[in-house]
Amino acid sequence: MSPGKFVDYVLSEKGQEGFLKLGYIPARNGMKLPDGFPARDTINVLPIKAADALKNTDRGSQDLLGHLRLELILSCTDTSKPETASPPAVSFVVIIVLILSVLPLARLAMVGIAAFADGGVMTVLGDASLWSSTYYTVVTAILGTIISLIIGCLFAFLLTLTDIRAKGALSFFFVLPMMIPPQVTALAWCRCRAPPVRC
Predict the structure, then answer these.
(1) pLDDT tens digit sequence for 127-144
(2) How far is CA 134 from CA 43, 55, 109, 123, 139, in A?
(3) Nearest-angstrom CA–CA distance, 121 and 136
(4) Please, where are the H alpha helices in the chain?
(5) Confidence of residue 41 (pLDDT cuts 50, 70, 90)
């Protein structure tokens, strides 16, 4: 749309109705004013030199066009505050976290403190198999991290920067290991009860 046609539309009755909804005073006579504005005949209009205005018509049209586009974009942008979770929902999440995470950890801590008080900690620390298991655990964790980093970088490169086929299937296989820990957690909860139950 050329600047001239845009200005013609702005000055038309339909265009002025749009700017009236945005809170502007219409340039056309006979149209109502936005709420809270003074009467039209009480507004002092600044004098304008018609010759200078005609010389700068194109520049003024471009400036007006850019200003109006910005106003329209801002008027369509939702500036409302994001919705926050309601207190009942937050309370429900906190209770679930307490039941599934805090209570099991607290039970383990109590068992450890009780063992320490009974002198069982020194017996466990003196067992050679404990340190052997610790060594292999640390080695396995370090090597597993390095291997996972290499595989993860390779998959990220293939899935994002190449045109390889079956990206959906590869993405599924890549996140498949993330589905295993919940299953292990479910089995652990089954074995938490005494006597043991069949899952």
Answers:
(1) 888 899 999 999 999 999
(2) 84, 85, 19, 16, 9
(3) 21
(4) 3-11, 13-21, 50-55, 57-76, 87-97, 103-117, 120-125, 128-161, 167-175, 180-191
(5) confident
